[in-house]
Design brief:
The protein is α/β, with parallel strands linked by helices and about 260 residues long. It contains 9 helices and 14 strands. It has a domain of about 90 residues: 4-Layer Sandwich (Metallo-beta-lactamase, Chain A). It binds zinc ion (ZN) and fe (iii) ion. The site of zinc ion has 5 residues, from loops.
């Protein structure tokens, strides 16, 4: 089984850039490099080359480092064909279901529209690692800037269908504030209460809450549970269309403080 090394680089106020390296061949990718300099520092420290940038979507806090990284390292930029004009420096345009190889590692591209129309995720099945940008967050999900609730719900179902052991590498440290909203709508969920305590302890100690596992998210994240009778009951929306429940949750979260 191929071995993957992941380095998490916190940048800006709450973004994570992830470096993904195939330890056998040294092929390395940066996922969603908001900035170039912090990535270049880590590459220099470790004496690594950068071969690829994997972009989940076009927002500046995900592609802001593309141009400089490409100029300095001559890496290739991978991103959604659907969003080809909005991803700076795009070299390799990918579509749903296509594979990307990083040495002996391989990822499948998953279309997960909603936050933006051309949003994709990268699923490394052999390494159990999911890079999902701003679609699924720890105990939350991305805002609907471009897509509909129906699209986002379908995207979240697609991610929910991955194995429970999948490690969810999202692009922001939002888990603690998401936990407050999740508990407000799902106060009797003991798994959520336990995860929320764990998240608070991690943050107090200055640690990252990313990745979480898909198993935890399936039990605790309200945005993955719009079709769960217990959550629907807690919301007073029992038996309703999950898209409607999801849309309502998303609207409530938008105004939650
Ligand atoms: Zn975004
Ligand atoms: Fe973002």
């Amino acid at each position: 089984m191929p071995r993957m090394e992941i380095v998490q680089i916190p940048v800006l106020s709450d973004n994570y850039v992830h470096l993904v390296r195939d330890t056998a061949t040294g092929v390395t990718a940066a996922v969603d490099p908001a900035l170039a300099q912090p990535v270049l520092s880590v590459l220099n420290e470790r004496d690594w080359n950068l071969d690829y940038i994997l972009c989940t979507h076009h927002h500046h806090d995900h592609v802001g480092g593309n141009a400089e990284l490409k100029m300095v390292t001559r890496c290739k930029v991978v991103g959604a064909a659907v969003d080809a004009e909005r991803i700076p420096g795009l070299d390799i345009a990918v579509r749903h279901g296509e594979g990307i190889s990083l040495g002996q590692l391989s990822a499948t591209v998953l279309d997960v529209p909603g936050h933006t129309i051309g949003h994709v995720a990268y699923w490394f099945a052999d390494a159990d690692a999911l890079f999902c940008g701003d679609t699924l967050f720890g105990l939350g999900c991305g805002r609907l800037f471009e897509g509909s609730a129906a699209q986002m719900w379908t995207s979240l179902l697609r991610l929910r269908g991955l194995p429970d052991t999948a490690q969810v590498y999202c692009a922001h440290e939002y888990t603690e504030s998401n936990a407050a909203f999740a508990r407000s709508v799902d106060p009797r969920n003991r798994d959520l209460a336990a995860r929320s305590d764990e998240v608070a302890a991690l943050r107090r100690a200055g640690h990252s809450t990313v990745p979480s596992s898909l198993a935890v998210e399936k039990r605790c994240n309200p945005f993955l549970r719009a079709d769960d009778p217990a959550l629907q009951m807690a919301l007073g929306m029992r038996g309703l269309d999950p898209v409607q429940v999801f849309a309502d949750l998303r609207r409530r979260k938008d105004v939650f403080r």
